[in-house]
Design brief:
Elements lengths: L4 H9 L13 H8 L16 E7 L2 E7 L7 E7 L13 H11 L2 E5 L11 H15 L1 H4 L1 E11 L1 H15 L6 E5 L10 H5 L8 H11 L22 E8 L3 H13 L4 E10 L10 H18 L1
Parallel strand pairs: 3-4, 3-5, 5-6, 6-7, 7-8
Antiparallel strand pairs: 1-2, 2-4
């Protein structure tokens, strides 16, 4: 499919993901960029919820969203934001956290994991795992139904969700779903989509290589590259959402195929004409609302 007209319009305004030459990204520049959100108005309205609280669990800052008052246990979505393990925060993704809670009638635990390069691999993955384990260990503190806990993440957050999912399996913790939205699942960067979408579609291959360099880790380690996980049997049922014009497309779709081959229930949905990052920007992309509605349907099936 050709680029969606909204993707074309977006790329005329923002031709690259970072919007600055990689050579200019000093530690000081990174810190400054984290404090500015040029897309705040496009992240969507902030749903009014009766409970929104910040706390620290297992040493990790989180923001907990609850869509209704009372103490009746609700399903839980542990959400990990994107940003190449370098950028992003709970605050920047507040609108999405609220939307996930309201749309899915679920408690959302949005995780402010440590960022690279100050905190390289495996800091973010360890934070993700610690929060998931805490939800299982203390469901009452979250108003959670321990039988209905899911993970969700976009981009680098999708990487963390996938890692948290296999670590939970290995720890004997049963997640009911993993929602992986254009996730980073390999760092070899050698797929056809990396070649076709190397430049000109927002997130570029050179920018992705820079993100991986900041995070570090062994490319063969499944805690960095879940496609390298030898045994995928028994992983939680999955939804994998991809964008057609995204260098990460092929590794995500390969992971979905690996899950299916291992007997894991999985549904793959590619958004034709879309580019990386569309899910988080409903102010730019109608497909964001479509994908969020689809994801809600998948969560609903898992929670039932």
């Amino acid at each position: 499919m050709p680029l969606h007209p909204q993707a074309e319009a977006y790329l005329k305004l923002f031709p690259t993901d970072l919007g600055t030459p990689l050579s200019s990204l000093t530690p000081e520049t990174i810190v400054r960029m984290r404090s500015v959100d040029g897309f705040a108005e496009q992240r969507g309205p902030k749903a009014l919820l009766p409970v929104v609280r910040d706390e620290v669990v297992a040493g990790v800052p989180v923001r907990v969203y609850r869509p209704r008052e009372g103490d009746r246990p609700l399903p839980v979505i542990v959400y990990f934001h994107g940003g190449g393990w370098v950028f992003g925060s709970v605050g920047r993704n507040d609108a999405l956290g609220r939307d996930l809670a309201a749309r899915n009638e679920a408690v959302v635990v949005s995780v402010d994991y440590r960022l690279a390069p100050e905190h390289p691999f495996p800091a973010a993955a360890d934070d993700a795992t610690a929060v998931v384990e805490d939800v299982f260990a203390r469901p009452g503190a979250y108003g959670a139904d321990p039988a209905r806990i899911a993970v969700c993440g976009d981009s680098a957050g999708g990487n963390l969700a996938a890692v948290a999912a296999w670590r939970a399996r290995d720890a004997g913790l049963r997640l009911v779903h993993q929602m992986l939205i254009y996730p980073v699942l390999d760092v070899a960067m050698d797929t056809p989509s990396y070649r076709v979408c190397a430049a000109g579609f927002g997130l570029g291959a050179d920018e992705m290589a820079w993100f991986v360099e900041q995070y570090g880790g062994d490319p063969a380690d499944p805690a960095l590259a879940p496609v390298r996980l030898a045994d995928k049997a028994g992983l939680p049922p999955a939804t994998v959402i991809t964008a057609e014009y995204d260098p990460l497309r092929d590794e995500a779709e390969a992971y979905a195929a690996q899950l299916a081959a291992a007997g894991v229930p999985v549904e793959l949905r590619r958004y034709d004409g879309a580019i990386h990052g569309f899910f988080g920007l409903p102010g730019f992309f109608d497909q964001a609302q479509e994908a969020r509605g689809y994801a809600a349907g998948r969560f609903g099936e898992a929670f039932r």
